[in-house]
Amino acid sequence: MSPRGQARSLSVPRTATSSGEIAIEEFGYGLGPPTGILVLRYPASSTVPDFPEDRDDFLHQVFWSPDGVLMVRRGTTSRFLAPTEMLWLRRGVVAEVRGLGVQTILRTCVRQAPSGLTDLNAAVLAPGEEARATLLSLARPGISEAEGLRARVAILDALAACPAGEIEHAGSWQSPAHSVARSLLADPADCTGLADWAARLHVSTKTLQRDIEREFDASFTALRTRIRLKAAAALLHGHSVTETAHLVGYSSASSFVAAFTREFGETPGRFAQHLAAS
Questions:
Q1: Buried b or exposed e, range 122-157, using 16+ CB within 10 angstroms
Q2: Which keywords belong to this entry (predicted)?
């Protein structure tokens, strides 16, 4: 039975990896020399765009979803990114990136970047509206190569100048507790209970609970609530309080408001107002 005030998991489409294919649109400007830029656009389709944990040794990458929330994981460290935020990955850095639903993702690849970026391994960046609009324009037909290269300079300079929240790589992702956390990061609304998780992972309920407490210093319920509320903070950029509550697994908006307020010290409505004003 689901915990009081929490909804059953929403129907989540299959990921691109599990379905075996994904739609990609490619926009390249000045490719060949190291000063070029390649923007790959993954349009919203019937599958959830995902990029399994891997690394690229040749290209720096920027991931951004203008119409959805991204989840990024490095080892046991995870973050949810709002549509106003971008993920920077220096070449050679390992990370897993995926959307929370059917959404558009832009994956920008460059070989050279300002030192303000290359000094960072992995970081969350929050560029202004002008930089976001410029990047979005590069993923559309009709942009000349000269315009694209000028836009490249403007975008990278804007990213290098904005505050960065580094994402450190911590630990491994091997235990049953991490299997549970990884699934919840992919679908915060998942209502699977502790006993069902234990059965799925072929361990006892007590063993799984002890593992979660050892790895995350929290009970299963507290871990699930923590992940849901972190996802909610990102989702509030583009959704109402009621919509956000349902997207992260609450059937009751009032239960969601109470939990969010305990975690962040203000109501989700006030939190959203501060986001809009920033």
A1: bbbbbbeeebbebbebbbeeebeeeebbebbeebbb
A2: DNA-binding, Transcription, Transcription regulation
Superfamily (CATH) of domain 176-277: Homeodomain-like (1.10.10.60)
Q: What's the pTM value of the predicted model, to 2 decimals?
A: 0.85
Q: For 28-75, how does the pLDDT look when each residue is reduced to its tens digit (9 = 90+)?
A: 999 999 999 999 999 988 777 888 877 778 999 999 999 999 999 988
pLDDT tier, 277 (very low <50, low <70, confident <90, very high otherwise): confident
6 has pLDDT over 70: no
- Contact yes or no for 115/143 (Cβ under 8 A): no
Reading phi first (left if > 0) and then psi (alpha if -120 to 50, else beta), residue 183 is in: alpha
Q: Where in the chain is the domain with CATH 2.60.120.280?
A: 16-166
